[in-house]
Amino acid sequence: MKKTYNIYKVLLLVFVLFGCSKKNEIENNVITSKDSLSSYLTLANDFQSTREKREQFNRKALNIIKLQSNDSLNRVNLFRVANRYYNMDNWKDFKITVDLVLENSVSSKDSVNIAKAYTYLGDYYCTQTISESAFLNYSNAEKIYDKLDDTYNLAKTRLSKAYLRYGENDFSGSELEVFDALRVIKGEKANDILYESYNLLGVIYNEIGEYDNAITYHKKALSSIDDNVIALQFQSKATSLNNMGLVYQNLNEHKQAKIYFQQGLEQQNLSIDKVSLYAMLLDNLAYSKSKLKETDGLPDMFYKSLKIRDSLKLTTGIFLNKIHLSEYFASKKDTVKAINYSKEALELSRRTKNFRNVLGGLKQLAIIEPKKASVYTKEYIHINDSLQKVERNMGEKFTRIEYETDQIKSENTSLTTQNRNLVFIFSGLAMLGLFTFVIKTQKAKNRELQFKQQQQKANEEIYNLMISQQNTIEGIRIKEKKRVARELHDGVLGRMFGVRINLDSLNKIDDGTAVEKRNNYLTELKSIEQDIREISHDLNREKSELINNFVAIVDNLFEDQKKTFKSKLVSIIDSGIKWELVSNSVKINLYRILQEALQNINKYATADNIKIELKKEEDHLILMMSDDGIGFNVKTAKKGIGLQNILFRTNECDGVVDIKSKKGEGTIITITVPIE
């Protein structure tokens, strides 16, 4: 349970100094000048005043700046106004101000402030959760800082990109961005960037399960803290101690985790400087204590943390607190409270549209309400699949944005080179006095020819892209047709065959029981009709029910077989198999193989006895299906669509099929599938 929502414990911890936050860029300069602009800026930064008054003073300062000439001081003052809007959470006016300073910087060819404006725009889109735009602006700033050889700001910008990728669960991309940041400051004294980099790497490795690396980098983060560079108010040490504790929680080493959380809580002025971190440490300490069966201070520590987070409106923190309380009361056998806290957490995550938290709430409810587990699990799978698709697409978009910006940079470099070469050529021609009419005419013809060649090349590329796209579409269409055919054949035809056999047999009976059975089979036909409709509506997924309660679903398949056909069926399923550890793909394909095998036996084998055994041997699942039917010659028999589907699905699981059969001696099919 803990791993599912662990990301939410640390999301608040990695954005300590950089990324999408300027909350700590509050300027503490006390301006005593009578100059109205300075006075307005000072009053706009007075947090003892109301937000309305601060916004009013900041607006007055902006109006004065707009009337001034566009010089370096003007742009500095615009950034000061933007910072104040950021600290007020006034995103609309913040964006307007940054756009203005970017426009002024571009017109003045002020590369430093252009790059700074792009980082501010990246921060803005980050707060608005528009990740693509944020990434694009950070990338633009990165290119300029790289060109200016400003290693410090280049590293900071790459860290901002790393945080952005991390927030979208693009952990590998985030890891690469951090190492790129570390590479440019290698050998320089930049402890704040070192700390942020090591801290983020520790969090990333914790998320992907590389706990040894996570511990290593969190220790590096702790050792890199320099109080002269990173202010004590940031509580960096408490942050890293909390992150270390989370790693040990994931390792189920709660005694060690408890030590780190306690050390974090002992940091001076923590409850004043970073009350949200204080509440987080309280919650995490209480959670580890509950896992160690320690009752002192519980559940009061949970309640205290929840009260703080509720007062600060930290929705993710509130969610985690309630999930922890649910686990705590579940361990105390207080099911009512456990369910109530889980449902409150789930309702909060839905209301705030935090779908990752929704997954955590559903998983907890599935554990404490086993009777409704299938319902919760079905919703969990649906949401999880959607989120994975979105996250994968976002990672691809980030990669595409980087590629496109690199292409633009390459094209600009190429144009610069071409222009320089043209200058050399024309200078040489001027010196040699060869500017004649004939040469000019020839150059014009050459340019026309180059243009035609480029145009022809562009047309060829467009044509090739169209052909490639058409081939891709056609390939997908063919693949989808085959998939639908397999689904209809595996999931529907077998059931229709059984219903048809029984309806034929009922035609020979004319009494009240026959009518009742016909009605039952008509109901079954309606169910089949619904299956066909579901397949038609959603061609992109297998039935999610196969993933949930796999053994129960297989038992239902066997019960339907026993009711419909005369063959005696004996099934043995190894109770030691941990189905929750078996991948969904393997479970789906095993179920379809069982359906296909039973259908083939019913149609062709005329068997009296069927035996199905599913067991685990070392790191393999073995499915053995045997019957005492008429059998067939394995070497000469044609491989129909049913047998082809069995082979196809086994191959999708990286498994092997062994078929033994002789005429009159029955058939034995053995499927061996590797599992982790």
From TrEMBL:
Listed EC numbers: 2.7.13.3
Residues in Histidine kinase domain copies: 590-676
Repeat region (TPR), residues: 195-228
Keyword Transmembrane: yes
Pfam families: HATPase_c, HisKA_3, TPR_12
Database matches in SUPFAM superfamilies: ATPase domain of HSP90 chaperone/DNA topoisomerase II/histidine kinase (SSF55874), TPR-like (SSF48452)
Transmembrane segments: 422-439
Catalytic reactions of this protein: ATP + protein L-histidine = ADP + protein N-phospho-L-histidine
Ranges in a coiled coil: 518-545
Signal peptide: none
Keyword ATP-binding: yes
Keywords, alphabetical: ATP-binding, Coiled coil, Kinase, Membrane, Nucleotide-binding, Phosphoprotein, TPR repeat, Transferase, Transmembrane, Transmembrane helix, Two-component regulatory system
Name listed for the protein in its UniProt record: histidine kinase
